[in-house]
Write a structure and sequence with these properties.
The chain has helices at 2-10, 12-31, 34-64, 72-95, 102-131. It is mostly helical. It has one domain. The N and C termini lie close together (10 Å).
């Protein structure tokens, strides 16, 4: 149960980095502001690397809780969204080297926007698990 309680405490840092980074980078790229874009790119990369241990803690936490039917769909969508977030932002990191080509820039921005949606979706379902169903909180024991 330790990891199930630790995961909600740790997850906010990489989520904040990924959301702000994606927003800054999209804004900076579309408005032509290099400094904002560079700050966003840094946040996205740092957020991705910070998200990896949080995902591992989340997996260990999910294995430690008793999954009840009332929140099983929310847990499934949370896990799916979290893995989609990691895969999409890994794609962002890999596509960075092809940004000088038109197809690379379009695909890069597409992955960045889908990654932003995925991280927001994971956050929504994770918040529902904690606040609606009291999963991994003291009230849920």
């Amino acid at each position: 149960m330790f990891f199930a309680k630790l995961h909600p405490l740790l997850v906010h840092f990489p989520v904040g980095l990924l959301v702000s980074g994606a927003m800054f980078e999209l804004y900076g790229n579309f408005r032509g502001e290099e400094t904002v874009s560079a700050a966003g790119a840094f946040n996205v990369r740092f957020g991705f690397w910070c998200a990896l241990p949080v995902v591992i803690v989340g997996i260990l936490g999910a294995m430690a809780i008793e999954v009840r039917d009332e929140f099983r769909p929310f847990l499934g969508w949370h896990i799916l969204s979290a893995f989609a977030t990691v895969i999409l932002f890994l794609g962002v990191l890999l596509l960075n080297r092809f940004r000088d080509r038109t197809w690379g820039r379009v695909t890069y921005h597409l992955f960045l926007m889908m990654g932003l949606c995925a991280v927001l979706s994971a956050g929504f379902f994770g918040g529902e698990l904690v606040h609606r169903f009291n999963v991994s909180t003291l009230a849920g024991n």
